[in-house]
Design brief:
2 copies of one chain form a homodimer. Chain A is an alpha/beta fold. Chain A has helices at about 10-25, 35-45, 60-70, 90-95, 110-120, 155-170, 175-185, 195-205, and strands at about 5-10, 30, 50-55, 80-85, 100-105, 130-135, 135-140, 145-150, 150, 175, 215, 220-225. Chain A has a 5-stranded parallel β-sheet, sandwiched between helices. In chain A, a hairpin with a 2-residue loop joins β6 (about 130-135) and β7 (about 135-140). The interface of A and B includes residues 16, 24, 106, 187 and 222 of A. The structure holds a DNA duplex.
DNA sequence: AGGGCATGTTACAATTGCGTGACGAAAACA
DNA sequence: TGTTTTCGTCACGCAATTGTAACATGCCCT
């Protein structure tokens, strides 16, 4: 039995794009054009993953996300959010409501496919709470919260995603380019040193744990192994 | 050897734009103005990536894409599709025929470059091992860290790349020419003995393992087999 | 043994890369 | 609407890195 994926997205061409690629990878695909229909299909098929656009007519993405979580207390359905740039708030709320990952539009098809597989691999139906921790820096992706040694950090959306990416690749150097792609998205047309500034702001908030975020001169940044 | 990219695009100014930017990034570029010519050049050069416009006179983009896939069953050539807005159908069909990503025209040059690199990184035919080791010298390319007998080395970016190259070709002699090309890049116009200086600096940091980095008089350097 | 090259060694100046603080614009919020 | 927060960019200064030159040493051949 192949794995089932539900797409909730109002733009037909994006639905098509996703369907073709997911089916090519061997998934069974269901489509919904709005939130209400999405919830209905989710109930009907209990898919292994829901790809969910934030901007939806009627019941919007994060409302769908919330109700998905409520409707099946026992079995958590992984959610991959699609969000346009500048929808930081939606994204944040979405993640705190149980989304497992998100991709910024316009996305690369390859990238999306990789994330789909990653989410399915790490969670599936028996998703453990994705908590990233290293050196007392703890990030709870679902709760969208970060703490250092028990002390809560007040991070902005960008800072959070930056920390999340670095922590997820702890021990490996992340180049500015990689960070720009993953944190800012492909369509970001900006200066690479923007990363530096955010690293600096992040360090300031990390307090004692700041030295764990190393600079690798001429390459990028990393969280110590 | 630099990576080769084939552009199949009928508009000359777009070809020029792409060529200029790709060559600046160190790629070797081939151009075709229509599908037939594109297929011919693909056969001739077996490029690492094809950038393919959907709208082409004669044999159109997705036909080219299909034939590309058919012609080389063994080695899949990554395809990046260029599609104008409103060509949604073409996009979908193209992707289902084996394209690896797409960019919507009018595209941002920066974004295109990022996607080119992303596609090449993933589908690269050079599946390089992430960990290189010889004689207790261990290099983790992803982490960008090097150690000798468990002891971390504090290498500069250039030293790291040098060690990586030597280690990757352990047992073979690397000429200064080769090292300059691989470590410094093709655009480096400098003195060959710059290599010597860096070898010395590297040796100093290698400590006990320094003798493993041999000089081959009149030829170059190598890591002992 | 000695000459001629190739490489090792050292020092230095120019360049590059990064941290830092400040600023204006845009977005979020009330 | 006005206020606050966040974001991206910039300019400056310091320090690490880098390429080169000049000199020293070692190797190979006759």
């Amino acid at each position: 039995m192949s794995q089932q994926i539900l797409i909730v997205e109002d733009e037909a061409d994006i639905r098509e794009l996703l369907r073709f690629n997911l089916e090519r990878e061997g998934f069974t695909v269901h489509e919904a054009a709005d939130g209400t229909q999405g919830l209905a299909l989710a109930r009907q098929y209990t898919p292994d993953l829901v790809i969910l656009d934030v901007m939806l007519p009627g019941v919007d993405g994060f409302e769908v996300c919330r109700r998905l979580g409520a409707q099946s207390e026992t079995s958590h359905i992984p959610v991959l959010m699609l969000t346009a740039r500048g929808e930081e708030v939606d994204r944040v709320v979405g993640l705190s409501l149980g989304a497992d990952d998100y991709v910024v539009k316009p996305f690369s098809v390859r990238e999306l496919m990789l994330r789909v597989k990653a989410v399915l691999r790490r969670g599936g139906r028996t998703a453990e709470s994705p908590v990233l921790e290293r050196h007392g820096i703890r990030v709870r992706t679902e709760a969208h919260s970060a703490e250092v040694g028990g002390e809560m950090l007040n991070l902005t959306a960008t800072e959070f995603r930056l920390l999340e990416d670095l922590l997820r690749h702890a021990g490996s150097v992340r180049t500015r380019e990689q960070l720009l792609n993953n944190v800012w998205g492909y369509s970001f047309e900006g200066y690479a040193r923007t990363v530096d500034t955010h690293v600096r702001r992040l360090r300031a908030k990390l307090g004692d744990a700041a030295p764990m975020l190393e600079t690798v001169r001429g390459v990028g940044y990393r969280i110590k192994e």
